Automatic annotation (TrEMBL):
The entry's keywords: Hydrolase, Iron, Metal-binding
Gene Ontology molecular-function annotations: hydrolase activity; metal ion binding
Protein name: Uncharacterized protein
Annotated ranges, domain STAND NTPase 4 small alpha/beta: 625-679
Tagged with keyword Iron: yes
Similarity annotation: Belongs to the cyclic nucleotide phosphodiesterase class-III family.
Domain Calcineurin-like phosphoesterase, residue spans: 5-236
Annotated source species: Syntrophotalea carbinolica (strain DSM 2380 / NBRC 103641 / GraBd1) (Pelobacter carbinolicus)
Superkingdom of the organism of origin: Bacteria
PANTHER family: CYCLIC NUCLEOTIDE PHOSPHODIESTERASE CBUA0032-RELATED, PHOSPHOHYDROLASE
Keyword hit for Manganese: no
Length: 1020
C-alpha cells in the first residue's frame, strides 16, 4: 500500500504573466513514476498560493493545479485530490484595516483572546478568497471544517489516512516578524487525538515562526500526534527525522518555493510512502531554465508507525500549570513567564555504589526512559539541587509514554496508616487527573509513585518504612527524593536501611560545562533567537559571563542559581552583557535572596557595609568558620563604631538569605562568591590604607594561588583603580622579564626545517551543534579528574605555599602566575574599556600579549636553537613501541610528530591569550597594537581574537595573512588550526567557509547537498 504526494509550496501567483503557469506539464511529469504503483495520490500545497489573496489570483491557481491534476490522471486513471493550507500571502491584507490590527494587538497582549470565536472570525476575514478556493479545489468532504483547520480522511485497504490542514496564517500581518505567531491549539487538538494509521499535517509556517508561548505546546502536539509534517514559507528545502523522548518520532518536509520572489530555481518535492515497509522516499526537483527537469536530491527515511500514544488519562489544567512551573518566577525579555518545558535540562546523576566498583555517572533521562530496569529509585540532592523539578519533569515524560504517574509530597501526608494513605492518594489523583475514577482502574503495572522529600515525613525511619512499603504494594514503580544527608539517617535507622537496599540510589550532580551549555542554549532559543548564527553569538556571550561568574565553584552550579544568572543577563542589553563588571551578577544573586527574606532596597546599603566588614573580619581571623561568640564580638565592635545592630535578628536574616550557613555553633559564608565579593569590596574601599595595599601587593605577586587570584579579581570587579592596574601590569612585566617573546618569524626557522611543506587538512561535513556540545563534555571530563582539588577553602586555599618548593614546582608556579596575571589584566581591559584611555589600553594589550609570548620563548628556548634532542626522544619512543621502521623513515616521522606537538602547544597558548582580550570593544586597540608591532605572533593573536568567537570573520584579511605565511609552515599550520577550530565550533556562511578553506589549504567534503544552507541558518 503506497501513497504518492506532490508537495508544492510558495507559488505567489500574481497574474497570468507568471512563467510557472507554463510549467504544469514538467511538474506533473516528476510525479509519474510514483503514481504507477500507488493506491492514494495527493497534491499537497503548503501555502502562499496567491501573491496577495486576490480572487483572480486564485482563478489562476485553480486552472494551474487542475491542469497538473489532469496530466497526472492521464498517466494513471486514479483519483487525485488536492489539499491546501493557507500562507501569509493568502491573506488579502490592508494596512488601513484598523479593526483587525487592533484585534491582533489585543491577542499579542493577552493570548487568551485567540480562543474567542468572534476574534478568530474577524482575523480570518482576510482569507475569504482562500476559503472559497479551498472549497472548490478539494474534492473530499472534510471530516471537520474550522477557520483554523480542516481534517480529511482517506482509506487504503484496512488503513485510515488522515490529512490535517492547519491555518497557521490566521493572524498574519504585513510586517510579520519571526517568533510572533500565535495559534490556539484547543480547537484542533481533540481531532488530532483520534486514531489513524497515518496522519499527515500541513501548515505554512515552520515551527520557529511561532511565539514561545505557542511554540512548545504546538510543537509537542503536532509532533506527538502527526507522523509527517509538511511546511513551506522559508523557501529552503529541508527534511529529516525528529526523534524526541517526550513526543516520539515524526518526519518533517520543508518545501522550496515553486515560484520564488528571487531569481532562483523552481523547486518542489515528490514523496512516496510505503505503508507496508514503513519507508518514505523523497525526491527534490527543480527546473533549471525553462524546460530542464533536474533531480537535485533523493533520500530514504524510515517511518515509525508503531503508534502514537493517545493519552486518555487527561491531566487537570491546574496540575499542567504545576508541571510547567520552573520553581521561581523567571521571565524572558518579552516579559512572559518561562515555561519549564522550554528550558529544562536533565541533570547528571552519580550512582551510589555499596560495593567496591566505581560509581557510574550518567544522565537522569536514562532512568525515566528505562523504567523496567529502574523500578526502585532514590534521588538524593542538596538543597535547591532541583530534585522536585526533576521528578515533575519525569512525571511529564512518563505520562507521555502511557504510564500513570502520581506525584506526592511526603510533608503533605497526614499519616502513614493505610486508610489515611488511601485518602491522600485519592486526593492527589483528583488534583492531577480529570478522571480520577479512571485512574483508579488503571493496571498497577502502569502506575508510578513519585514521592518528593521523603526525609520531610513525620515519624522518622519507621514511618518512612511504612510509607514505602505501602507504595510498593500499590504501584509498580516507586521514585523517591530526599536531601543528600538522608544517607546518614539510612545508616542509623535499620528499618529504612533494609527497605532501601533494593533501591538504585543516585546523587544529583552540579551542572558541568555541557549541561550549562544546553541550559543556556534552551534559554536563548526560548528568548526568541531564531538563526543559528545569532544563537552562536548570544550563547557565547552568556556562557562567557556564567562561566566567569561561576569560576572554580565560587557559585553553586545548581539550576536555580544558573537561572537567576540567566535572568540577570536578560536585564542587560547585549553590549552591557559582553562587558559588564561581574560584580553586577554576584550582587544580583544575593540581593535576590535578601529581597525574598523581606529586606527592603533602602536597607541594602547598611547591610552590604556590615557584610563588607564581616568578610574582612573572617579574613583577619584566618578561618572559614567562626564561633557565635566571635560573631557577637564583631557585631559589638560594628555597633560601637557605626550603628547598633540586633545580633540575633541579623544572624537569622543572613542565614535565611543563604549569606551565612550555620554548623552547630559555627558559622561560615554559605558560598565562596559571597565571601570574595565582600572582601573585594573592602579592599576597593580601603586600598589607600597601607595594610590593605600591602595585602593586595602580596596577592598580585602570588596569583598562582587561587585565593589570591580571587581576591584580586573581585577587587577589580568593584573598581578600575589605576594603582591596582599598575600593580598587576608590573607583576606581569617582571615575570620572565629576561625571556625574549617568541615572534614566529625567523626565530622558528629550526622548527620550520622539521617539515618540507604545509599539510593539507580535510574537513568533513561537520555538525557544529554536536561539536559545541562535545567540546563542553571534554572540559567536564578533564575537570572530573581534578574534582578533588576543586573545593575552594576561603581561609587559605589548597595550593602549597611552602618556601622549600623544588625547582620544577617553582617554574610551574611562575608560568601559572604569568597566565593568571595576563588573564586578570585582560579582564580589567574588558570590564573598563570605556574609562581607560586609548593609549593606555594599547600599552596594556601589548603586555597581555607579550607575557605569554615570553613564556613561549622561555619554553622553546632550547628548541629554537636545536630541536634535535626532542626528535631523538620521539625516535626512542617509536622504538619502544616496537615499530619496525628504517632509520630515515623513523627520522621523518619523528620530525613530523615534533612539529605537530609544538604546533598544538603554540596554537593553544595563542588561542588562550586571545581570549584574555577577546571583546568587540577592544578590536580597534588590538589592531593598533598589532600594527605597531608587525610581528607574526601579534598577527596570529589578532586572527585568534576573531576566530575564537562567533560572528563576522574577515575572510579577505585572513587570506592575505595566509599568503604572508606561505613560506612559514609552522605559523601557517597555527593559523590553519585556528580557522579549523572556528569552522568546527561556529555556524559560518558557506561562502565564507569556502573562502577560508581555499586560503588555508583545507579541503571541504564534497558530500554537501541542497539543505546545508537551511541547516546552517535555522533552528528547528
Amino acid at each position: 500500500m503506497k501513497i504518492a504526494i506532490l508537495h508544492l509550496s510558495d507559488i505567489h501567483l500574481r497574474d497570468k504573466k507568471e512563467d510557472i503557469l507554463n510549467k504544469a506539464e514538467l511538474i506533473a511529469s516528476s510525479f509519474f513514476v510514483q503514481i504507477r504503483d500507488s493506491s492514494l495520490v495527493l497534491i499537497l500545497i503548503t501555502g502562499d498560493i496567491a501573491y496577495s489573496g486576490e480572487g483572480d489570483q486564485y482563478n489562476l491557481a485553480l486552472n494551474f493545479f487542475e491542469k497538473i491534476k489532469s496530466i497526472v490522471k492521464s498517466e494513471k486513471n486514479i483519483n487525485v485530490d488536492i489539499i491546501v493550507s493557507p500562507g501569509n500571502h493568502d491573506c488579502k491584507l490592508d494596512k488601513d484595516d484598523i479593526v483587525r490590527e487592533s484585534v491582533i494587538e489585543k491577542i499579542n497582549k493577552d493570548e487568551s483572546h485567540a480562543e474567542n470565536i468572534a476574534v478568530i472570525q474577524e482575523c480570518t476575514k482576510v482569507q475569504s478568497n482562500f476559503f472559497e478556493f479551498q472549497e472548490i479545489i478539494t474534492e473530499s468532504t472534510p471530516l471537520e471544517k474550522h477557520n483554523l483547520f480542516c481534517e480529511y480522511k482517506y482509506t487504503i485497504g484496512d488503513r485510515e489516512v488522515r490529512v490535517t490542514s492547519v491555518n497557521a496564517s490566521w493572524m498574519s500581518s504585513i510586517a510579520e516578524k519571526q517568533g510572533s505567531l500565535i495559534y490556539p491549539q484547543k480547537f484542533v487538538s481533540k481531532h488530532l487525538e483520534e486514531e489513524s494509521s497515518l496522519r499527515i499535517l500541513l501548515l505554512h509556517h515552520p515551527l520557529n515562526w511561532y511565539s514561545q508561548s505557542t511554540y512548545h505546546p504546538l510543537k509537542n502536539l503536532l509532533r506527538a500526534k502527526s507522523d509527517i509534517i509538511l511546511s513551506g514559507h522559508e523557501h529552503c528545502v529541508s527534511s529529516g527525522l525528529i526523534d524526541e523522548k517526550f513526543v516520539g518520532k515524526s518526519l518533517f518536509f520543508e518545501a522550496g518555493a515553486l515560484n520564488p520572489h528571487e531569481k532562483d530555481k523552481n523547486r518542489w518535492s515528490v514523496i512516496s510512502i510505503d505503508l507496508g515497509k514503513q519507508e518514505v522516499v523523497e525526491e527534490r526537483y527543480a527546473i533549471d531554465g525553462f524546460t530542464k527537469l533536474e533531480l537535485e536530491n533523493k533520500s530514504e527515511m524510515k517511518l515509525d508507525l508503531s503508534g502514537k500514544e493517545f493519552q486518555h488519562l487527561d491531566l487537570t489544567e491546574e496540575f499542567k500549570t504545576t508541571l510547567k512551573d520552573p520553581g521561581a518566577l523567571f521571565s524572558r525579555p518579552d516579559k512572559e513567564k518561562v515555561n519549564l518545558e522550554s528550558i529544562f535540562v536533565f541533570p547528571e546523576l552519580e550512582e551510589r555504589i555499596r560495593a567496591s566498583r566505581k560509581a557510574r555517572i550518567f544522565n537522569a533521562e536514562t532512568v525515566f526512559g528505562d523504567l523496567d530496569n529502574y523500578k526502585r529509585v532514590l534521588f538524593l540532592g542538596e538543597e535547591k539541587a532541583g530534585k522536585t523539578v526533576l521528578i515533575l519533569r519525569g512525571f511529564s515524560y512518563l505520562h507521555s509514554q502511557g504510564y500513570a504517574p502520581l506525584y506526592l509530597r511526603a510533608k503533605d501526608l497526614s499519616s502513614v496508616s493505610e486508610k489515611s494513605l488511601r485518602k491522600d492518594i485519592l486526593l492527589a489523583a483528583k488534583s492531577q487527573y480529570c478522571n480520577p475514577e479512571e485512574y483508579e482502574r488503571i493496571s498497577k503495572r502502569k502506575k508510578v509513585a513519585m514521592l518528593d522529600d521523603l526525609d520531610f515525613l513525620k515519624g522518622g525511619g519507621k514511618a518512612q518504612y511504612s510509607l514505602i512499603s505501602y507504595l510498593e504494594n500499590n504501584f509498580d514503580s516507586v521514585i523517591l527524593t530526599a536531601e543528600k544527608d538522608f544517607e546518614i539517617n539510612e545508616l542509623i535507622d535499620s528499618n529504612i536501611k533494609s527497605i532501601l537496599e533494593k533501591y538504585s540510589i543516585f546523587e544529583i550532580r552540579p551542572f558541568g560545562h555541557k549541561l550549562r551549555y544546553e541550559l543556556i542554549r534552551k534559554w536563548c532559543i526560548s528568548s526568541g533567537v531564531n538563526t543559528k548564527k545569532d544563537l552562536d553569538q548570544k550563547l557565547h556571550d552568556i556562557e562567557r559571563v556564567l562561566n566567569s561568574v561561576i569560576g572554580k565553584n565560587l557559585v553553586p552550579r545548581k539550576p536555580i542559581y544558573l537561572l537567576i544568572l540567566l535572568q540577570s543577563c536578560n536585564g542587560s542589553p547585549d553590549a552591557e552583557l559582553k562587558n559588564s563588571s561581574f560584580a553586577y551578577y554576584y550582587q544580583y544573586l544575593f540581593t535576590k535572596n535578601l529581597s525574598e527574606t523581606g529586606v527592603k532596597p533602602e536597607q541594602l546599603h547598611e547591610l552590604f557595609f556590615y557584610l563588607t566588614n564581616l568578610s574582612w573580619f573572617f579574613h583577619c581571623e584566618k578561618s572559614s568558620y567562626l564561633t557565635e561568640e566571635k560573631l557577637i564580638e564583631f557585631n559589638r565592635q560594628f555597633s560601637d563604631e557605626f550603628t547598633t545592630v540586633d545580633f540575633k535578628y541579623r544572624i537569622e536574616l543572613l542565614c535565611d538569605a543563604f549569606i551565612l550557613k550555620k554548623h552547630g555553633n559555627l558559622y561560615k559564608f554559605s558560598y565562596p562568591y559571597v565571601y570574595y565579593y565582600f572582601v573585594g569590596k573592602y579592599l576597593s574601599e580601603n586600598i589607600d590604607q597601607l595594610k590593605v595595599r600591602e595585602f593586595v601587593e602580596e596577592c598580585i605577586a602570588n596569583l598562582h594561588i587561587r585565593k589570591n587570584a580571587n581576591f584580586v579579581l573581585f577587587l577589580t570587579h568593584h573598581q578600575n583603580s589605576p594603582l591596582v592596574i599598575d600593580l598587576v601590569e608590573k607583576s606581569l612585566v617582571e615575570n620572565l622579564k629576561d625571556a625574549i617573546p617568541i615572534e614566529y618569524g625567523k626565530d622558528i626557522d629550526s622548527i620550520n626545517n622539521l617539515v618540507d611543506s604545509v599539510s593539507e587538512l580535510i574537513m568533513e561535513d561537520t555538525d557544529v551543534d554536536q561539536n559545541q556540545k562535545k567540546s563542553r563534555g571534554l572540559v567536564d571530563e578533564i575537570e572530573l579528574h581534578d574534582e578533588e582539588n576543586d573545593e575552594e577553602d576561603i581561609d587559605g586555599g589548597k595550593e602549597s605555599e611552602a618556601d622549600d618548593v623544588d625547582d620544577v614546582v617553582e617554574i610551574v608556579n611562575r608560568y601559572k602566575r604569568l597566565t593568571k596575571t595576563a588573564e586578570i589584566l585582560g579582564q580589567i581591559l574588558k570590564n573598563y574599556y570605556g574609562s581607560i584611555k586609548r593609549d593606555r589600553k594599547i600599552e596594556l594589550i601589548k603586555e597581555v600579549f607579550d607575557g605569554p609570548l615570553r613564556m613561549q620563548g622561555s619554553l622553546y628556548k632550547d628548541m629554537l636553537n636545536d630541536p634535535g634532542p626532542l626528535v631523538k626522544e620521539i625516535e626512542s619512543f617509536i622504538d619502544f613501541k616496537g615499530k619496525n621502521l628504517d632509520k630515515d623513515k623513523k627520522r621523518i616521522i619523528a620530525k613530523k610528530i615534533c612539529f605537530r606537538i609544538l604546533g598544538l602547544v603554540s596554537t593553544s597558548l595563542i588561542h588562550q591569550t586571545a581570549i584574555y582580550v577577546c571583546s568587540d570593544d577592544l578590536k580597534e586597540e588590538i589592531g593598533q597594537a598589532v600594527k605597531s608591532s608587525k610581528t607574526i605572533a601579534y598577527r596570529l593573536l589578532e586572527a585568534a581574537v576573531d576566530l575564537s568567537t562567533p560572528g563576522f570573520v574577515n575572510a579577505e584579511k585572513l587570506s592575505n595573512l595566509s599568503k604572508t605565511l606561505s613560506n612559514n609552515p609552522f605559523a601557517f599550520t597555527m593559523l590553519q588550526t585556528l580557522v579549523l577550530y572556528h569552522l568546527h565550533m561556529f555556524h559560518t556562511d558557506f561562502r565564507v567557509r569556502q573562502k577560508l578553506c581555499q586560503s588555508l589549504k583545507i579541503e571541504m567534503s564534497t558530500s554537501r547537498h541542497i539543505d546545508v544552507n537551511s541547516k546552517d541558518r535555522k533552528i528547528l
